[in-house]
UniProtKB/TrEMBL annotation:
Its EC number is 4.1.2.13. Pfam families: F_bP_aldolase. This is fructose-bisphosphate aldolase. One of its GO terms (biological process) is gluconeogenesis. It catalyses: beta-D-fructose 1,6-bisphosphate = D-glyceraldehyde 3-phosphate + dihydroxyacetone phosphate. It comes from the Eukaryota. The keyword Metal-binding applies. Catalyzes the aldol condensation of dihydroxyacetone phosphate (DHAP or glycerone-phosphate) with glyceraldehyde 3-phosphate (G3P) to form fructose 1,6-bisphosphate (FBP) in gluconeogenesis and the reverse reaction in glycolysis. InterPro entries: Aldolase_TIM, FBA_II, Fruct_bisP_bact. SUPFAM superfamilies: Aldolase. Residues 1-16 form the signal peptide. Pathway: Carbohydrate degradation; glycolysis; D-glyceraldehyde 3-phosphate and glycerone phosphate from D-glucose: step 4/4. PANTHER family: FRUCTOSE-BISPHOSPHATE ALDOLASE, FRUCTOSE-BISPHOSPHATE ALDOLASE CLASS 2.
C-alpha cells in the first residue's frame, strides 16, 4: 500500500515521467565523470546480481534534492546532503561500527526514522571488522577490514533504502598509512565506477602544530576532492578517551578552538575545494564522565561570524560558511546539541552511548533468560529440555540490535533528524520468522 503511494509520488519528484525530456539518472548526477568510466549500472545491487525492489529501486527521495539516492553518497549528492542538513537544521548521527551487526543496526535505525545516517569506522574498529586474529602489520588488517565493511554498507544501504555517508573516524599522524590504503581502494573503485568507495575520511592532526596540521590536510584534500570525497579535519583537542587515544589530562584551553584558527583552516582549504568539514573543539569530550563537561557551542557561531566578515560579499546568505562536526556527543545536554546544530553542525559522533546500548541489550537478555542460558540441556521446564534457541548467538545479538535501534532513535530525535526523506514509516518486515528462525517467549 505504502509503496504504491510512493510509486505514484516518486516519478513526480524525480521528474522522470515518460513525457519529460530525457535526463541523466540521478545516481549518475552525483558522480563526477561517470561518462568517462566503464560504469554500466546505476545500482550496486545490479552489479552484484541481487534483487533491488521497493525502497532499493528508488531513484531519489520525495523530500530531498535529486542527487541524493539510496546507498552510499559521494560527490554532488554528498555535498547536497550536507547543505540540506545545514539549511533544514538537522545533523546526521555518525555511528562507529565494528561488525556487520552494528552496521545493520544503523541502517535499520535510519529507515525507522526516515532519515540519512553516517556510518563510520575507527582504525581499531576497522581492524576488529577484519578480525583480531589477523596480523595488522602496516595496518593491513585495518585497511582490509574497512574495505570489507564498506562493501557490506554498499550492499545493504540500498536494500534498506536510505542514503549513507560512509566515513572513517580519527586518523592521527601515525595512522596515515591506514587512510592512504583506503584512498588507494577508493581511487581504484573510482576508475571503475565513477565514484569513490568511501564518502569521506577524517584526518586528525590536532596533536601536531597547526601549520603542519593544515599542510597535511591540504595534501589530502587535493587527493580526495579529485574523486568527490569530503575531508573532515580536527582543530583543537577532543578530551577524554576513545579507541586507545587518551586526552584525559589535556590543558583546558586546548579544548576550545579560536575563531581566527578556524578561519585560517577555512581560508586555506577552500582554496583547494569546498569538500571539507571542521571538527572544531568547543569543550567536547569523548566518553561519558561523572565530572561536568563545559561545552561552549557559542564558539561555533562566533567562528561563522568571523569567517563571514572575512569573506565579505562572497559570504553565503545564511552567514554560516563552515560545516562543523561534533565529536564527543555522548552524554551532552540536548540544549547544547540543538545550539550546535543552529550554528552549523551537520554531524554528531555517537560511539559511547551505542556501545552501552548494545551491551545493555545483551545484559537484559541474559537477565531475562538466565535459567535457560547456563547449560546446553536442562532448564526450569525440565531437566532434559534443550536450550539451543536461547544460546543461539542470534538471539542475544538481536536483543543488542533492537536496544541500539531504540537508542539511535533518541539520537535521531535529539539531532532533529527524523522524517527527513519523506518515505513514511517502514512496513513490517515479512518472512523473517519460521519454525527454525527464532521466536523466543516474549
Ligand atoms: Zn572523535
Amino acid at each position: 500500500m505504502k509503496l504504491t503511494i510512493l510509486a505514484l509520488m516518486l516519478p513526480m519528484v524525480c521528474n522522470s515521467f515518460s513525457f519529460a525530456p530525457p535526463r541523466q539518472h540521478p545516481r549518475l548526477l552525483s558522480r563526477l565523470h561517470a561518462s568517462e568510466t566503464s560504469l554500466k549500472s546505476e545500482r550496486f545491487a545490479d552489479e552484484l546480481g541481487i534483487p533491488c525492489e521497493d525502497e532499493c529501486s528508488m531513484d531519489c527521495f520525495p523530500n530531498m534534492p535529486e542527487s541524493i539516492h539510496p546507498g552510499v553518497l559521494s560527490g554532488q549528492g554528498l555535498m547536497d546532503l550536507l547543505k540540506d542538513a545545514k539549511d533544514r537544521k538537522y545533523a546526521l548521527p555518525a555511528v562507529n561500527c565494528v561488525t556487520s551487526s552494528s552496521i545493520n543496526t544503523c541502517l535499520e535505525a535510519a529507515r525507522t526514522n526516515d532519515a540519512p545516517i553516517m556510518i563510520q569506522f575507527s582504525s581499531g574498529g576497522s581492524q576488529f571488522y577484519a578480525g583480531k586474529g589477523l596480523d595488522n602489520t602496516n595496518y593491513k588488517a585495518a585497511i582490509a577490514g574497512a574495505v570489507s565493511g564498506a562493501f557490506h554498507v554498499r550492499t545493504l544501504a540500498e536494500q534498506y533504502g536510505v542514503p549513507v555517508i560512509l566515513h572513517t573516524d580519527h586518523c592521527a599522524k601515525k595512522l596515515l598509512p591506514w587512510v592512504d590504503g583506503l584512498l588507494d581502494a577508493s581511487e581504484r573503485y573510482y576508475e571503475k565506477h565513477g565514484e569513490p568507495l568511501f564518502s569521506s575520511h577524517m584526518i586528525d592532526l590536532s596533536e601536531e602544530p597547526i601549520s603542519e596540521n593544515i599542510e597535511i590536510c591540504e595534501h589530502y584534500l587535493r587527493r580526495m576532492s579529485k574523486i568527490g570525497m569530503v575531508l573532515e579535519m580536527e582543530l583543537g583537542v577532543t578530551g577524554g578517551e576513545e579507541d586507545g587515544v587518551n586526552n584525559e589530562d589535556v590543558a583546558k584551553e586546548d579544548l576550545y578552538s579560536k575563531p581566527e584558527e578556524i578561519w585560517e583552516v577555512y581560508e586555506r582549504l577552500s582554496k583547494i575545494s569546498d569538500k571539507f568539514t571542521i571538527a572544531a573543539a568547543f569543550g567536547n569530550v569523548h566518553g561519558v564522565y561523572a565530572g561536568d563537561i563545559d561545552l561552549d557551542p557559542e564558539i561555533l557561531t562566533r567562528a561563522q561570524t568571523y569567517i563571514s566578515d572575512k569573506l565579505g560579499p562572497s559570504a553565503p546568505a545564511d552567514k554560516k560558511p563552515a560545516y562543523f562536526v561534533f565529536h564527543g556527543g555522548s552524554g551532552s545536554d540536548l540544549s547544547d546539541i540543538r545550539k550546535a546544530i543552529d550554528y552549523g553542525v551537520i554531524k554528531m559522533n555517537i560511539d559511547t552511548d551505542t556501545q552501552w546500548s548494545y551491551w545493555e541489550g545483551i545484559k537484559n537478555f541474559e537477565d531475562k533468560f538466565s535459567p535457560y542460558l547456563q547449560t546446553q540441556i536442562g532448564n526450569p521446564d525440565g531437566a532434559d529440555k534443550p536450550n539451543k534457541k536461547y544460546y543461539d548467538p542470534r538471539e542475544c545479538l538481536r536483543a543488542a540490535e533492537v536496544n541500539t535501534v531504540d537508542r539511535l532513535t533518541q539520537a535521531f530525535s535529539d539531532l532533529n533528524c527524523q522524517n527527513i526523506l519523506g518515505l513514511g514509516p517502514p512496513e513490517e518486515p515479512e518472512n523473517t520468522l519460521g519454525p527454525r528462525r527464532g521466536g523466543l517467549p516474549v
